[in-house]
Amino acid sequence: MRIAFMGTPxxxxxxxxxxxxxxxxxxxVYCQPPRPAGRGKALRPSPVQQRxxxxxxxxxxxxxxRGEEEQEAFRALRLDLGVVAAYGLILPQPILDAPRDGxxxxxxxxxxxxxxxxxxxxxxxxxxxxxxxTIMRMERGLDTGPMLANxxxxxxxKTAGELTAxxxxxGAELMASVLERWPKVGARPQxxxxxxxxxxxxxxxxRLDFRKSAVEAERQVxxxxxxxxxxxxxxxxxxxxxxxxxxxxxxxxxxxxxxxLTVACAEGALRPTSVQRAGRAPMTVQELLRGFPIAPGxxx
Length: 300
Prior knowledge:
The termini are far apart. This protein has helices at 13-21, 47-54, 68-75, 93-97, 119-125, 160-180, 214-223, 285-291; strands at residues 2-7, 25-30, 35-37, 42-44, 59-60, 81-85, 103-107, 115-116, 130-137, 147-154, 197-198, 230-234, 237-247, 263-264, 269-277. Helices cover 25% and strands 26% of the residues. The strands form four sheets. The chain has a seven-stranded mixed β-sheet. Strands 12-13-15-14 form a four-stranded antiparallel β-sheet. The chain is built from eight helices and 15 strands. The longest helix has 21 residues, at 160-180. The chain is of the alpha/beta class. It has two domains: 2-198, Formyl transferase, N-terminal domain (Rossmann fold, 3-Layer(aba) Sandwich), CATH 3.40.50.170; 203-291, Methionyl-tRNA Fmet Formyltransferase, Chain A, domain 2.
């Protein structure tokens, strides 16, 4: 089939690879524009743009698809289908209508739970036991379209980074399976019950809140690993926590309880196991405390 692929981050790369491996004619790849990155703030193409260029596929990076010129350029591709995975831009109705068979989306949740921008992080923060991937036909509403296929995945104690990589692989396989059977794929509407929304992650949410339970704080650590990174502040410095465990201990919330940097929460305590100072590599708590002591009794 003649397809336009629309995606931006690492999550979307396996789906693009699956389309190419299946022999589809990928007429163009759409990504968000390159963003400043690194200490020099040089413009860096997205992972999908890099992969597409390496494969010799034309790449388009419009800042918006609302203009008539961009919409006409999309229509001119004369597509059978649009395939979308974590593109990051809203697709106006003229874009959704342009391909002969419309547009399909790889969404990282079991719809209708966690419609929206950050389904993986929200599932971890909520303590969900499992999540998954849904292939859906796109329509005007936010992730409201009929479902073509889904597949579950257990969350366990996975970080957002680990879960993203797992769901990216599942999504690629699931999309390949749908397209292999196309157009003889049944669609079913999403249930009206069980709808939740995965709002975009704000940076302030990554601050560890020791007024919550240790279980909730540990979820913060996993949900914000690798980005933006859960953190606390001490002596004017922000310290990221990459890994931690909830343990049985008690004390005033925010109090350092021992020489292992165990911090009391409203219920239980959080014991970090991997931390990072600004401008440094991740390290163990023991390595941190040798050069940056945080004494028991300290209030964070």
